[in-house]
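Quick one: structure tokens for this chain, please?
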Amino acid sequence: MGFQHNTRGNFRNRPRVNEQIRIKQIKVIANDGELLGVMPTEVALQKAYDMELDLVEIAPNENPPICKIMNYGKYLYELKKKEKEAKRKQTGAQMKEIRFTSRIGEHDYQVKLKHIREFLKSGHRVRIIVRFRGREITHKELGEELLKKLVEDLKDMSKVDMGPKLEGHFMLIQLVPMRKHL
């Protein structure tokens, strides 16, 4: 007599529905939010069927457990929509990477600086890497000067998250956007 729902996917954290509820006494809330009181599960289940809705356990750890009469399919749809929205917002800040050489020309520097500014305005973290080729590694001060110049040019919209660090033939720094520019 009850309505069947698709139970595929991760059903462990889903609430019990209709015949899955095996407790004798439950507290019931109507679809409009009105408290119907404590009653036997069979009576509550019959009320849900009469309204062509489902009985859903929303607070299983209460004494007695609280169940609500609602459209379970619609409830799952809304839940998935909220999860999707939360996941979309979560992936906002990513790590972007820009690579420089220690002997970069002024025009190339300005183009890359513009890209870094766009990434920071979008709320992304930026890792800046200066690569030393061959014997350039003996002139680490060129890489340090380049990174200091970048930090100075970007001080109005970012702050240093991880200071200049030398790893093999690379010198890197991480910048994070300041809150007021997001």
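The two ends are 54 Å apart (CA to CA).
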